[in-house]
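Tokens in:
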């Protein structure tokens, strides 16, 4: 017979001590970082880890990736369609042109894309070649010229 439900979140299992209090039906969890006790609900416990300052500090100190935060983000953020992604990339190319940024501003080695990825990890940044050739088309440049003329 198979187990029902979703697979266990390993980060939650490691970060909490699971126990049953005498006389109560509900299982309880205690955060190993801050000691807070909550009902055993993996989704709520994952949310606690995202907001638990002592857990986040320990993750940063150990140099571990914050997988809990990434997993939670994929639950709460909407999927970006290819049309939306193209619009985002065109706007990024427009921003490069308008702000005088180099076309390689969104390369993986730069700080700007890393900051943006912390907001939504599903974004795909355009390469400098793509910005210079396909994304800065005639309409985008006309819009940029119009925006510049307003100043």
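Residues out:
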């Amino acid at each position: 017979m198979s187990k029902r439900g979703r697979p266990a979140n390993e980060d939650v299992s490691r970060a909490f001590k699971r126990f049953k209090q005498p006389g109560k039906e509900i299982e309880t969890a205690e955060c190993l970082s801050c000691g807070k006790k909550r009902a055993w609900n993996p989704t709520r416990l994952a949310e606690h880890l995202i907001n638990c300052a002592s857990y986040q500090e320990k993750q940063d100190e150990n140099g571990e990736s914050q997988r809990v935060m990434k997993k939670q983000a994929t639950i709460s953020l909407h999927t970006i369609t290819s049309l939306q992604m193209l619009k985002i990339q065109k706007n990024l190319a427009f921003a490069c042109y308008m702000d005088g940024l180099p076309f390689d501003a969104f390369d993986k080695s730069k700080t700007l894309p890393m900051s943006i990825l912390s907001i939504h990890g599903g974004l795909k940044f355009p390469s400098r070649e793509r910005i210079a050739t396909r994304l800065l088309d005639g309409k985008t440049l006309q819009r940029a010229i119009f925006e510049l003329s307003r100043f």
